Amino acid sequence: MTVKQLSSSGQFNILCMPEPEREIDGVYIGDLLSWVMGKAEADNVWITIMSNINVIAVASLSDVSCVLLAEDVTLESDVLNTAKEKGINILSTPLSAYEAALKVSGMI
Prior knowledge:
39% of the residues lie in helices and 18% in strands. It has 108 residues and is α/β, with parallel strands linked by helices. The protein has a 5-stranded mixed β-sheet with strand order 1-5-4-3-2. It is globular and about 30 Å long.
């Protein structure tokens, strides 16, 4: 499944999608950025409630397919602009991290 296919499910809102054809191969949930860097795998959907600029750096270093912001978390425009520049897909959802992980897992 691609990030574009995930976003078309109606469960997730697109905030930024510079690489819609990125493949998804798993889910990682975490808010402690150092743990995400060490444990998230390439092509994972990273589910978080973190919303600062460091999310973009960690997503890039971890090579995740996309960042999924749970609980309707939003990003400031400067963070979104950086995500676009770095090629980081960002989605959001009103679901909790757990509910979002179940949805993504069921789709992949």
